């Protein structure tokens, strides 16, 4: 990979997205990092590589000329409680990422990295898992040269908002089988960067239990 590569990240104000942004800015493989966000990044990193694009994801098409990148990292997501309805959840967790993928692929992007969820399956009886599975299937149908899908269980890290139920489930799941144990946002971000650096052809699905191992395989140039 040359130092002239451009990365684009959506969801940089979130837990995983913020970790990913810091790693992309610190890594020499990318000369430019575009952060696609709905609001200004708190404590925005002071880096000449950062290009912040403020946008309303409902009108993402207007930004198509600014969405040109080699590698795309999608950490968009919400919760049913925060979304307020099934339709709103579907918009944020399926429609926005899918449109982002379509626009960046049309702009020449070669690698797409998605934060999905453990149990993602379009045939799941659970709405959350079903929406995640639908998005995965749509991305696979697009025929990306390199597509990486990460399926974490409960995500641990310092959040800017209170999620007591997630904290409780995280503590309980530490004794669960490896497939369901919590995984840190830092490990997810490191794993995403590692796989993007490799950009393996075709589809790579990284289940929750394998994310820490992928993170430990990070290039020595990564933080």
Question: How are the elements arranged and paired?
Answer:
Blueprint: E1 5-10, H1 15-26, E2 30-37, E3 50-54, E4 71-74, H2 80-83, H3 86-106, E5 111-115, H4 127-141, E6 146-151, E7 155-156, H5 164-173, E8 183-184, H6 185-198, E9 202-207, H7 211-216
Please characterize this protein's 3D structure:
By secondary structure, the chain is an alpha/beta fold. The protein has a single domain (5-216), classed as Rossmann fold (3-Layer(aba) Sandwich). Helix content is 37%, strand content 20%. It has seven helices and nine strands; from the N terminus they run E-H-E-E-E-H-H-E-H-E-E-H-E-H-E-H. It has helices at 15-26, 80-83, 86-106, 127-141, 164-173, 185-198, 211-216; strands spanning 5-10, 30-37, 50-54, 71-74, 111-115, 146-151, 155-156, 183-184, 202-207. It has a seven-stranded parallel beta sheet, sandwiched between helices. It has a two-stranded parallel ribbon with strand order 7-8. The two termini are 17 Å apart.
Shape: globular
SS summary, helix count: 7
Terminus-to-terminus distance: 17 Å
Spans of at least 5 consecutive residues with low confidence: 219-223
Rounded to an integer in angstroms, the radius of gyration calculated over CA atoms is 16 Å
- The helix-strand sequence is EHEEEHHEHEEHEHEH
CATH superfamily heading: NAD(P)-binding Rossmann-like Domain
The percent range for strand residues is: 15-25%
Widest sheet, order of strands: 3-2-1-4-5-6-9
Q: What structural class do helix, strand and pairing data support?
A: alpha/beta
Main pleated-sheet profile? 7 strands, parallel
- What number is the mean pLDDT? 89
Return the domain count. Answer: 1
How helix-rich are the residues, as a percent range?
25-40%
CATH topology (level 3) name: Rossmann fold
What's the architecture in CATH terms?
3-Layer(aba) Sandwich
Q: State the assembly state of the protein chains.
A: single chain
User: What is the number of beta strands?
Assistant: 9
CATH domain class name? Alpha Beta
């Amino acid at each position: 990979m040359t130092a002239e590569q451009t990365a684009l990240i959506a969801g940089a104000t979130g837990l995983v997205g913020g970790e990913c942004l810091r790693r992309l800015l610190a890594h020499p493989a990318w000369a430019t990092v575009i952060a696609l966000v709905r609001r200004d990044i708190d404590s925005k990193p002071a880096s000449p590589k950062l290009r912040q694009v403020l946008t309303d994801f409902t009108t993402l098409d207007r930004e198509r000329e600014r969405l040109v990148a080699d590698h795309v990292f999608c950490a968009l997501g919400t919760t049913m409680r925060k979304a307020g309805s099934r339709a709103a959840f579907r918009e944020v967790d399926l429609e926005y990422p899918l449109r982002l993928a379509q626009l960046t692929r049309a702009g020449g992007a070669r690698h797409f990295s998605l934060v999905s969820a453990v149990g993602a399956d379009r045939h799941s009886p659970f709405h959350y898992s079903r929406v995640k599975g639908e998005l995965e299937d749509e991305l696979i149908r697009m025929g990306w040269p390199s597509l990486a899908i990460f399926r974490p269980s409960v995500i641990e890290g310092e959040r800017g908002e209170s999620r007591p139920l997630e904290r409780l489930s995280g503590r309980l799941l530490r004794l669960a089988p490896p497939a369901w144990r919590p995984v840190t946002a830092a490990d997810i971000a490191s794993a995403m960067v590692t796989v993007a650096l490799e950009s393996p052809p075709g589809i790579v699905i990284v289940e929750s239990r394998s994310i820490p191992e992928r993170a430990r395989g990070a290039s020595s140039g990564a933080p």
